[in-house]
Amino acid sequence: MTRLRWPRRRFLAAALLGPLASACSGRRGAARRDPGGVLTVSTEQQASWVRNFNPLLAPGNIRWPTRAGIYEPLFIYDTMGGKVVPWLSSGFTWGPDKRTLHCTLRPGVTWSDGQPFTADDVVFTFEILQRHKALDLFGVWSFLDDVRATGPDALVFSLKKQYVPGLVYLGHQPIVPRHVWRDVPDPVTFTNERPVATGPFTEITVFQNQVYELGRNPRYWQPGKPALRGLRFPAYPGNDQATLALLHGEVDWAGNFVPDVERIFVARDPAHHHYWFPLVGGTVMLYPNAARAPLSDERVRKAISMSIDRALLVKVAMYGYTRAADATGLHDGYARFRSPEAAAAGDWISHDMERAGRLLDEAGYPRRADGLRASADGAPLTLDVHVVTGWSDWIRAAQIIAQGLRALGVTSAARAYDFSAFFEKLQKGAFDLSLGWSSDEPTPYHFYRDLMGTATLRPLGEPAARNWHRFGSEEADALLAAFEGAADEREEMRLSHALERLFATRAPVIPLFPNPSWAAFNTRHFEGFPSAQDPYAKPSPYSAPECLLVLTRITPRGA
């Protein structure tokens, strides 16, 4: 097998760090002028911005603050604290049969245009999802029977069945104003260029191809918040450009990968340059498209997994910020649920080229005389790996994966696309293999529902909100159904372990490593960011709606 050798690894690191280090040395000590209370954030990475603030569309199609900054949910699940934080809702209670959820809204909330926020807005939002299946990203109408207002500040969700895990799907849904959206002819294509919302930042003060800015909501319901005057978003096409801006003091809060962060970022200004990368940012997966042969074959998926040198991925692509995934696929947000026995049962997670080759032989893809693997009709086995242009860590990971596949006799290359094109292909199943992320919601139920349940299955070509790889298991459905009515945490644990064993047996997707919640901060002008010492929320700006906890906590330094 051909491997990346140590000199090659050094070359990769030097190739990336060289431009950053030289650029930094030329501007050492340079500081951005006082931003005047406007926080500059690096989240999405695209060459230019498209003005779309429709909160009912999937993240990636819309600008980042839309679902957690402009619009808001009923409540927020705090990953680091393991608790539900009331937001637009001041509280909720389950009925005795756990098939009705009574929700009380926070009094005194208004929309940014001054109209009152009421239960009718919540009902209207969920009715939109019912009429437009493409907008029901969490599949709430698969378990929701009805939602009705019982007063201006009260409503009841009626469920078709017991479905306690559905609480987070209902609670995290961004709510839109009925008095504005009732006149929208097609909510699926609506770009909502001038949003009316309840969030802390609702005013679009600047929108250009290369930068946009949001001003704070003058009618925000939290007294004295936000302390920030606004948010600013420059367009950076990739990690390298975003990192340079961070190093030069042009970014205050970055959610992108930073190579060798201690040396090139912290050491530059130890008093103000900080980071926190807890492993709660989901799991980075290699998604095999199970709707396409031969990836529908479990043996092929496992062979691909065994061709991947995860230790090399972690060292070269991820700079040692994480660790190799195990066969449960679970990240640290689910640490208390992880079963060591299930993790050990999935031996396909180990790097074993000999066994990988035998599995492909069994699946009907032997090596030809030229060393390439082919099907019975002589067609070479070709599996390209899709990745996002500019995501330098993932690009290196995709290259290492493709190299391992080529060593196995599979024709493979890393194919990079601009994020919008990448995400469209991912949603529609227009790929063989694609890097991607996982959900990181309160329990493994949500994680495995996305990866093995049939409720989120969509035909090829139809956008899928979660199940991008088109895999469904009736055995998983039965376990998930039992989880939906679990009476206590012990029962949840038992069912989680059963789902972990099933995942480790079937290999529906290929876990690579737990993803850090990327967060680098420049505290020269702002303070109050999450940290290991004050872990009040996930630190990455990507974490909607949890980043609302951060946006309403950050203050200008000295304010």
TrEMBL record:
Database matches in CDD domains: PBP2_TmCBP_oligosaccharides_like (cd08509)
Database matches in PROSITE patterns: PROKAR_LIPOPROTEIN (PS51257)
Signal peptide limits: none
Domain Solute-binding protein family: 83-451
Protein name: ABC transporter substrate-binding protein
